[in-house]
Design a protein that fits this description.
By secondary structure, this protein is mainly α. It contains 16 helices and 2 strands. The protein has a two-stranded antiparallel ribbon. It starts with a helix and ends with a helix.
């Protein structure tokens, strides 16, 4: 692929973290409080919203999730797959972490913490559902926010683009089988028809639409594409936050009864981030990969496509499920945790490069 073709692609990978993204955890916390309060004061309104379903898909939430996901997928250029060979070692490490380590390690962590260590403090009837939510959270690698993390750690933009494009291509075919396998191993029944409907609605169709839209925007130039993508960012986050308000309006009674649930569910998610980012970073160092590739590799290996996880959890288990709540905890801690990983990657560059040179 020529440099001329790559220029508009790289442009989409360079935005700095926005005001809304930087304080995403604050907005999520406000949504928790606001959603719980609204659910207590206006229960009839939210029950009416929950009843607007077609084939087990809530229409308002389905529309909001498309507004969430499509702008993020708009940034993905599948033409960047031509760059995979140029970063074979870094991409190999990230693929190993994303598809062979992260989903399975999260299932194990869920089994250890939710089903055993924390079981006494969690609602007994929701233990399986919490584990399902954690699995959904870990089964899909992050798509849009990775561009921000990569920029903050001075990552190679072409590596980031090619890695995310490859992960999205794999996700289309691998997400459902991995989720079904891990839920089955955890003795959780999953309706295949609903799972495949979720994959179609929240992966396949949005990918196709976003790529068609991307092509049309790029016909008017890279600058025009970047302007549109930037304007859509706050809209995407607003849709996410409104979805969370709806979710917590239905989860309000459980939150009030079990205020420690969110903190307990955060523990396996935090451990997973540390485990996967550290392992990816170390493997890249052992293989002599450049720091500008190892940084985004570690970040892609650690972060999750939480928008897809929330959507799938709601479709499979419902608004009031522990699965939906568990995926939202991932949203709550995503930004501060990933910013901490970025800081570690940046501050350890000299240490990393000494080891990479020896390798």
């Amino acid at each position: 692929m020529t440099t001329a073709i790559l220029k508009p692609v790289a442009a989409a990978a360079k935005p700095a973290i926005s005001f809304f993204e930087r304080y995403l955890s604050v907005w999520v916390a406000l949504c928790i409080v606001g959603g719980v309060a609204l659910g207590q004061f206006f229960p009839g309104v939210f029950k009416a919203v929950a009843s607007l379903e077609v084939a087990q898909v809530n229409i308002p939430v389905g529309l909001l999730i498309w507004v969430m996901i499509v702008p993020m997928l708009l940034k993905i250029d599948f033409a960047a797959l031509g760059q995979v060979k140029a970063h074979a070692r870094g991409i190999g490490v990230t693929l190993f972490i994303n598809w062979a380590v992260k989903p399975f390690s999260m299932a194990l962590l869920g089994w250890i913490f939710v089903r055993h260590l924390f079981a006494a403090w969690l609602p007994a009837d929701q233990l399986d559902s919490y584990i399902a939510g954690l699995i959904l959270l870990a089964a899909a690698p992050c798509t849009a926010m990775v561009f921000v993390w990569s920029q903050l750690c001075k990552g190679d933009p072409y590596f980031t683009l090619s890695q995310v494009a490859l992960n999205d291509a794999i996700m289309i075919v691998a997400f459902a089988p991995i989720v079904a396998l891990l839920l089955g191993l955890s003795s959780i029944t999953v309706p295949w028809d609903t799972l495949m409907t979720s994959v179609g609605l929240y992966i396949v169709v949005p990918v196709i639409l976003s790529q068609l839209w991307r092509r049309q925007l790029l016909k008017r130039g890279a600058a025009h594409f970047q302007v549109v993508a930037t304007k859509l960012g706050p809209l995407s986050i607003a849709a996410l936050l409104l979805t969370l308000v709806l979710l917590f309006a239905f989860q309000g009674d459980r939150i009030i009864e079990q205020p420690l649930v969110i903190a307990l569910l955060a523990v396996p998610i935090l451990i997973q981030v540390v485990l996967n980012s550290g392992l990816a970073y170390w493997l890249n160092r052992r293989m002599g990969v450049q720091h500008c590739v190892a940084g985004p590799s570690a970040l892609i290996g650690a972060s999750n496509f939480f928008e897809l996880a929330v959507a799938t959890a709601i479709s499979l288990f419902g608004f009031q499920s522990g699965a939906a709540l568990a995926t939202v905890v991932g949203v709550l801690i995503e930004v501060p945790v990933m910013l901490a990983v970025v800081a570690i990657v940046n501050r350890s560059q000299a240490w990393y490069e000494r080891g990479a040179q020896r390798a």
